Amino acid sequence: MAWDVVVVGGGVAGLVAARGLAAAGREVLLLESSPRVGGKLRTAEVAGLPVDVGAEAMLARRPEGLDLAAELGTEVLHPTAAASAVWSRGALRTLPRSLMGVPLDHDQLAASGVLSPEGLARASAEEPTEVDEDVSVGDLVGSRLGDEVVDRLVEPLLGGVYAGHARRISAAAAVPQLLAMARRGGLLDQAAGLPASTAPVFATVPGGMGRLPGLVVDRGGFEVRTSATVRALRRTDHGWSLTVGPTTHAETLEADALVLATPAAPTARLLADVVPTAAAELAAVETASVAVVTLAFRAQDVPDSLFDRSGFLVPPVEQRAIKAATFSFAKWAWVRDLDRDVVVLRTSLGRHGEEATLQAADEGLVRVSLADLAALAGITARPVDTHVQRWGGALPQYAVGHLDRVARIRAAVADLPGLAVCGAAYDGVGIPAVIGSARRAVASLTQAQ
């Protein structure tokens, strides 16, 4: 059967691309290799409560996610006023306001105790350096403000977003505002002049982000096939031919246009014969694997002091197993309202190049999470239920020069009419950025008509 457009990949990017193309009047088929759509958005029951076990929020200061929610007719919810913390130098300390670790308020930074007196003095004596080309976030901040700011603020923040390491992640791709500031002059002076915003940083939808994929499908106007692995594709005189399904029962589908909304590695495999230049660039994009451990406790077993905290980050320099804990019961009112007698929280583990951490069995990840929660947050009770969600190769790493790599990929893809790529490997790993990437792919196909 021939389709106007086939979208390969049923994560956020693929779903949004399929919806946009259907809205433009195209007949669209979405193919997802796993049994379910949604990618890294997923809901599971823990202690009988439906909670997110993948991404649990989207940035509210970018418009794409909020716009999509409005288009789908769903309201958005914002976190409570609970404060974030960082475990540093033997205590949970309120996380000072920053731009990806660059302090926005020096007095607040000093009061937090996150840095040692020596680290604070070094940060205060900024040493401006010339920045001509792309550089890693860690090298940029370290050269200006010192290694301790990188180790205790930048690293945990970037670890939460990218599961990466500050001295390997591109400033131009991950924090372009920071790079632009560095080229203008001192970071601290400019940061101090940034206006404080009262707008919420994050948002979700009622019932959690895991509900979003279903809303897109229900209101999408496109056909979905799950457990449908695309094994090969070929350019034809009229578009594309796709080989789908197991080798013993392979099916051939024809399409006028094609959107690959798959991660970098499978996209590279599919493009190896048709766009080898793009395939080579995509194959060079490294990824990080992570795990989310969700734990449910009796409310009476959790220290009262934690109900005012949304969670905490853990810098790698602290040498703990977990890199963060999210107190979902305190961060999200909707989670707390599910059952007042049970509280749900989650830990996250895994950074780029540290896959050995995740080789433990599920029970092992639960055990180290409980040990760190006891040591860092005083939660010593046994949970009433647990859930471990592994996300293998889930987060692409934006190495120095990433923007140039993406430009080369898109230039090579553009040489073949009727082909577009989108997803977290290109323009940002957050949900709004991925939505923006999908909409860019839609525009490239619809404007070429």
From TrEMBL:
Catalyses:
coproporphyrinogen III + 3 O2 = coproporphyrin III + 3 H2O2
Q: Which InterPro entries match?
A: Amino_oxidase, FAD/NAD-bd_sf, Protoporphyrinogen_oxidase, Zeta_carotene_desat/Oxidored
The record's comment on protein family reads: Belongs to the protoporphyrinogen/coproporphyrinogen oxidase family. Coproporphyrinogen III oxidase subfamily.
| One of the record's GO molecular function terms | oxygen-dependent protoporphyrinogen oxidase activity
Q: Which UniProt keywords apply?
A: Cytoplasm, FAD, Flavoprotein, Heme biosynthesis, Oxidoreductase
Query: Which PANTHER family has this protein been placed in?
Result: PROTOPORPHYRINOGEN OXIDASE (PTHR42923)
Q: What class of enzyme is it?
A: oxidoreductase
UniProt key word Cell inner membrane = no
Cofactors (names) = FAD
Highest rank taxon of the organism: Bacteria
Outline what the protein does: Involved in coproporphyrin-dependent heme b biosynthesis. Catalyzes the oxidation of coproporphyrinogen III to coproporphyrin III.
Pathway given for this chain reads: Porphyrin-containing compound metabolism; protoheme biosynthesis
Compartmental location: Cytoplasm
Cite the EC number: 1.3.3.15
Primary location recorded for the protein, binned into one broad class: cytoplasm
Q: Taking every annotated instance into account, which residue ranges of this chain make up the domain Amine oxidase?
A: 12-443
Q: Which gene encodes it?
A: hemG
Q: What is this protein called?
A: Coproporphyrinogen III oxidase
